[in-house]
Amino acid sequence: MGTLRSPRTTHVRARGNTDRVTCDTGDACEPRGRGGAGRGLAAGAAPSVPALPLGSMEAARDGKGGSGPNGHAEGPAAERGRGRLRGCRGFLRRNALVLLTVSGVAAGVALGTAVRGADLSPAQVAYLAFPGELLLRMLRMVILPLVVCSLVSGAASLDTRSLGRLGGIAVAYFLGTTLLASGLAVALGFIIRPGAGATGLNAPSLTGAVPTSKETVDSFLDLIRNLFPANLVAAAFQTYATDYRMLSRNTTSGNVTWEKVPVGTEVEGMNILGLVLFALVLGVALKKLGQEGEDLIRFFNSFNEATMVVVSWIMWYVPIGIMFLIGSKIVEMEDIVVLVTSLGKYIFASILGHVIHGGIILPLIYFASTRQNPYRFLLGLITPFATAFATCSSSATLPSMIKCIEENNGVDKRISRFILPIGATVNMDGAAIFQCMATVFIAQLNNVDLNAGQIFTILVTATASSVGAAGIPAGGVLTIAIILEAIGLPTNDLSLILAVDWIVDRTTTVVNVEGDALGAGILNYLNEKEKKDKEQELKEVNVEAVANSKSEAETSPLDWLSTPCFIHH
């Protein structure tokens, strides 16, 4: 009588193009569907397993069981379709904020175009802009804690050597790119000549209030004074500015002369320069304290993280605020035809300078420094760019820029929260282009041929004054007067610049924040490279130390004690 064997369970596998049947007993079974007897079966063994239907084999191959709606097994096409659907859902989930922000810009243009013909009153336009005003107020609300806590945390987390090295590279990058931007604007101004042949510039719709001009020396002294605020609490909402009073003096001949005397005043606006310097010094001081300063460092770190959580909540309101900001600004436009026909060349030249600098020069600098794709880096910053375009404020864009550059581009928090607040204050490439182009435009408008000395003065003054340009809407217009005074041009024509500032200021702000972001990316790359070099150097030192220890063990002076000669004696 034959030996009884337990029933064998069969499993189906798919490998290559062969449907293979394997057995739990470990016996190899003949593949089905290709003919031939089972090579691993003895005579009289259990009958072979019948061939499975093709659909079942494909379902087993894909690791999926079950059947489709018609009772047939689902094939690879259905699985690929579900995979694409899951991929689309994941893409939408990851890029929801970016897509909503871009949609908000498009919806704002459509809203403003549609409502423009309704002839709204100024009060109604203000109501339309109310949701956008809320966005600006929320963003400005978090600027103070974000700047102070970020800089204190960043300065305290970096050692003195790294802080000095990164700070030096950042200053060189900021000054270098700003000088390049100024040179580009002057060159484009001479090539395009936006002020030559301009007509209709005395139209009432193009006039506006001319900002009070200041002496160049007083402007730079104000910049230095604001670096050292007398009251830190007041620096959160006030900044120092020089004003002038006219005093009469009687001369010996009986004539009365008037003298302009500078008088210091406090004007509304955050003194961000003073806060930045104080935060950096405080962070370095806490680092020097060692263990005693750890508690305060942890406090600023926690405060900073909590602020970033609030920023992440605000970012979901950005698409709505952007839509109403852009829509209300389009409604406020008085006569776009007059603007384009009279100042079209100036607008074109300014925006072209921003496109060349932001689209070519800055990416080339990033690529030359990191050998990485700059446009892929910029693709992760669409939301901050849209925010900059809508708000025209580098400071208001700072919260979203820090959040996106860390989450989307993987920049180290110590780098981003150290460099970006400084860049939002002192790095103004777009403003330098705007100021130089406006200066060349006004010179050509007054038929003034600029000589080499005046061009050099424009470059240096624009580069220096852009450092003190406030990161607020229309902040660059106030610094143009400094350049005009420096080269002896009238400031009355600044009203023409103010008429179209709302257009040019948008691309100006985008280029400003782009320069900050790429600078942070370059510093992050250099910092990571330095860390890798140190790790490699440490490994080489360890290997060399091990080799030296082995060599010393082999040639130890005590080895002669164990020689046969010594033992014999």
From TrEMBL:
InterPro entries: DAACS, Na-dicarboxylate_symporter, Na-dicarboxylate_symporter_CS, Na:dicarbo_symporter_sf. It comes from Melopsittacus undulatus (Budgerigar). GO terms for cellular component: melanosome; plasma membrane. Its main location: other. Residues 1-81 are annotated as: Disordered. The gene is LOC101877451. One of its GO terms (molecular function) is symporter activity. It is found in: Melanosome; Membrane. Belongs to the dicarboxylate/amino acid:cation symporter (DAACS) (TC 2.A.23) family. It is a multi-pass membrane protein. The chain crosses the membrane at residues 96-118, 138-158, 170-192, 269-286, 306-326, 346-365, 377-398. Coiled coil: none annotated. It comes from the Eukaryota. This is Amino acid transporter. One of its GO terms (biological process) is L-glutamate transmembrane transport. Keywords: Acetylation, Glycoprotein, Membrane, Phosphoprotein, Symport, Transmembrane, Transmembrane helix, Transport.
